[in-house]
Specification:
2 domains; globular; twelve-stranded mixed beta sheet; Peroxisomal Thiolase, Chain A, domain 1; alpha/beta
Length: about 400
């Protein structure tokens, strides 16, 4: 019998705010957290907007034992980990045998960039910045700060990283390796990344409009999200509140091109089908699709094709939206953030809106959620993540029901 895996705690921070309540309020209102970049001089770039976290005092969110020098990425993670752990019913520490599984593309890139700048200027770079730069180190910070002394895993396969981190943790619990896991994803706003996406001409100079005919590029964001996953029986014995069930996970790699998605949608279609099969549910059982939806021409057309081919007639009616139009593309953190938003939306019966959408694209004939605040009975969500290099991942998340499979 397959061990069922449930979510008992969640933490999130995006440019919309810190915590589930602030993010839900922004989603319900159809708010956009995207504006002119201020963390560095972006005046020389074609696309100079982004979704930055502003006004949050990270140092106040740290425990007394956490050094103030920690990289911004580590501070984001420690903030959301604390929210998730407390919601799961653990006072301050996780069980020691809890694996920590985190997805990212940049790790501590801000620390690495700072070290590089010091060296270029002929100064002595801070040695600790080199450790903070390594992606694995942020997971170590979370484990150390929260009493987890088992295993730390860092997953970095582009924009599917956060979703694959959750999928990896799901399989650790299903396989009986652990009864609990901390999983999530994160990335920060970094000039290095903004410069790279500008060089690809992938950043919009107007608005982020996923699936819209006039879409002309993405907007980068920053943030982090953590989920506490537990084997259902263990969670019930603890008497904690169960927020949702991770019912299915699928992944694939099409390796079509280093940056461009496969226009046939073969890899994306396979990941979605595998997630649905893993959850033992039909496409018609899905009530909402949280799309990857980057607002680039090729990605959205590819994803729409994959959805149409898997969902058939149901693709005409199932609500679809991308929250990247509100919080930007958070790269390795996107999948985890979108999983948390999907669960919050499901439990509140609210459809996250695809803001800025106004002109349907014949290549994307989907039921796009174009107005904020729409109520909808959501029992099951498909959340998609597709990354550079052909990395594809999908999750099926459903409302928890106390029943045997």
């Amino acid at each position: 019998m397959t061990r069922r895996v449930v979510v008992t705690g969640m933490g999130i921070i995006t440019a919309l705010g810190s915590g589930k309540a602030e993010n839900l309020s922004g989603i319900i209102a159809g708010a956009s957290a995207i504006g002119r970049l201020t963390s560095f001089d972006a005046s020389g770039y074609r696309g100079a907007t982004g979704a930055e976290i502003r006004g949050f005092e990270f140092d106040k969110a740290l425990s007394p034992n956490s050094p103030k020098r920690y990289d911004r990425a580590a501070k984001l993670l420690l903030t959301v980990a604390r929210e998730a752990i407390r919601e799961a019913g653990f006072a301050d520490k996780l069980p020691a045998d809890t694996p920590v599984v985190l997805g990212t593309t940049l790790g501590g890139m801000l620390s690495g960039s700072a070290f590089h700048k010091e060296i270029v200027l002929g100064r002595e770079g801070r040695a600790s910045s080199l450790f903070d730069y390594i992606a694995f180190s942020q997971g170590v910070r979370v484990a150390e700060d929260n009493g987890a002394s088992s295993n730390v895993f860092s997953i970095s396969n582009a924009c599917a990283s956060g979703t694959n981190a959750i999928g990896f943790a799901l399989n650790e619990i299903r396989g009986g390796i652990s009864d609990i896991a901390l999983a999530g994803g994160y990335d920060t706003m970094c000039e290095f990344t903004v410069a790279g996406f500008n060089s690809l001409q992938a950043i919009t100079t107007t608005l982020c409009r996923p699936f819209d005919l006039r879409r002309d590029g993405l907007v980068l964001g920053e943030g982090a999200a953590i989920l506490i996953l537990e084997e259902m029986g263990a969670a019930k014995r603890r008497g904690t509140t169960i927020l949702a069930e991770i019912a299915g996970y699928g992944e694939s790699s099409d390796a079509y091109h280093i940056t461009r998605p496969d226009p046939t949608a073969g890899g994306a279609r396979l990941a979605i089908k595998r997630a649905l099969e893993d959850a033992a549910c039909a496409p018609s059982d899905v009530d909402y699709i949280n799309a990857h939806g980057t607002a680039t021409s090729f990605n959205d057309a590819m994803e729409a094709k994959a959805i149409r081919e898997v969902f058939k007639d149901h693709a005409k009616t199932v609500p679809v939206s991308s929250i990247k139009s509100a919080v930007g593309h958070i790269l390795g953190g996107a999948g985890a953030i979108e999983a948390v938003i999907s669960i919050v939306a499901m439990n509140e019966s609210i459809l996250p809106s695809n803001i800025n959408y106004s002109t349907p694209d014949p290549e994307c004939p989907l039921n796009i959620v174009d107005r904020p605040g729409q109520k909808h009975n959501i029992k099951r969500v498909l959340s998609n993540s597709f990354g550079f290099g052909g990395a594809n991942a999908a999750l099926v998340i459903q409302k928890y029901r106390d029943r045997e499979p």
